[in-house]
Structure formats: structure tokens, C-alpha cells
Amino acid sequence: MTIWDDRILEIICDEGPTSPTPLSDHQYIHIGKSGVSKRLNRMKDHGLVTELGNGVYSITTEGERYLDGELNAEQLNDQSSNGDESAQV
What we know:
This protein has helices at 3-15, 20-25, 33-45, 61-67, and strands spanning 49-53, 56-59. The chain is mainly α.
């Protein structure tokens, strides 16, 4: 997990579902749209966000648990790696 992952999750949690462009324009995000997209896809692979369609992402229960400190990043499984739990977020 990176600082940008935490900030992206916090923004989605506070402001609701959104897409990479508004996130990259947010005052607390200092990476471009492609960087935000990359982080969202990685977090989606780990079950922290879900894509609602048309590039809009929403935080999942697991993402909320992570923000609440109930889930450690080391506990996250890469859902796209076919059970390879050593994949990093």
C-alpha cells in the first residue's frame, strides 16, 4: 500500500464513488490520472475497491476495514493472482 492508496480510499469513503479523473484533480492527490488508475486497479485486485462500471470505483467493506485499522495490508490477497498470497499491494 502507498500513501496514495490510503488517500484515494479516504476520499472515496468520505465523498462516495468516483473515477480517476476527479481523484487526480483532488487537492490531496499529487499523482496523475494514469497513476490513480493504476492504484485503483491494484486495490481492486486486492478487494479494497470495486468497479461499478464506466470507470467508477466504490470502496468495499474490506477497504473500510483497512481504513479503520482492522485489516493489515499484509493480510490482503491478490484476487487476480490465483491464490498467490505473496503478491504485494
